[in-house]
C-alpha cells in the first residue's frame, strides 16, 4: 500500500522506517544534526506546501530518504492504518 504525504508525494508503506513529529524531535540536538546531515547529503524531499509538521524516513533499495510533510504524525498514522484495514 501507499501513503500520501502531501503535495502529490506518495510513498510505499513498506519503505517507511519511521514517522516523526518535527516540533518534538527537533528539540534534540541529535535530531537537528541528523536533519542537517540528511539535507547536506541531498536526501531531503519537501512534500509540504506549508510549514512542515512531520518527517518520514524511508529506505528503498538501500537508499535513505527523508520526506518533510505538512501533515501531523497522527494523520499519517491514521492513513497508514486505514490502508492496512482496506487491504485485509
Write up this protein:
There is one protein chain. This protein is of the alpha+beta class and 88 residues long. The chain has one domain (2-87). It is built from 3 helices and 6 strands, in the order βββααβββα. It has helices spanning 22-25, 29-40, 73-87, and strands at residues 2-6, 9-12, 16-21, 44-46, 54-60, 63-69. Strands 3-5-6-4 form a 4-stranded mixed beta sheet. The longest helix is centred in the last third of the chain and has 15 residues, at 73-87. The mean pLDDT is 93.
List keywords for this structure.
single chain; alpha+beta; 4-stranded mixed beta sheet; two-stranded antiparallel ribbon; 3 helices
Write the layout of secondary structure elements.
Blueprint: E1 2-6, E2 9-12, E3 16-21, H1 22-25, H2 29-40, E4 44-46, E5 54-60, E6 63-69, H3 73-87
* SSE series: EEEHHEEEH
Gross morphology is globular
Characterize the largest beta sheet: strand count, sense, and whether it forms a barrel.
4 strands, mixed
Per DSSP, the total helix count is: 3
Question: Strand fraction band?
Answer: 35-45%
Q: How many whole angstroms does the radius of gyration measure?
A: 13 Å
- Helix/strand-derived class? alpha+beta
